[in-house]
Specification:
Elements lengths: L2 H16 L10 E12 L2 E10 L6 E9 L5 E10 L2 E8 L5 E5 L1 H5 L12 E8 L5 E7 L13
Parallel strand pairs: 1-7
Antiparallel strand pairs: 1-2, 2-5, 3-4, 3-6, 6-7, 7-8
Length: 153
Amino acid sequence: MTSKQQTSVLCLVLVCVAISGCVITPPDISISFLGDVETAGNQVQVDGSIGDSMSDNTYHDVRLYSYDDEKKLLQVTPVGDLTGRLEVSMTIQPIPKYIIIYSDDFWENEDTDDFWETRDVTVMYLERMENGNYSRRGQATSPDELPVNPAAG
């Protein structure tokens, strides 16, 4: 095989490898809470912000749902429409096991642009641990992955 033929074969192999199913996965959009969750007596004070990390979507009617250990609804707090970051401050009584950020738009809003086809939305929720502190949990990509689905109740 001549040098020119070897170069042609090598180029053909490189092109085949480059286009053989390589898929670029878009980054997820993450709805998360940043701030403080403090327990005092029989109540919890939540101060911080809810934010969308990767898009300029608007999510309407965002609410914070709080549930007890038996997943019984304790309180629903409307926080408004979310574009970017949204400040929140609320007191929950009695102390909840779960605090869930929720909007129907999280699951219905497909984000598309010129480069990415679609991006999944992951939603973080808070869970009270055995030591009484709240841990940021989550990565729910559908309402059924949340500890309680607010839309089902």
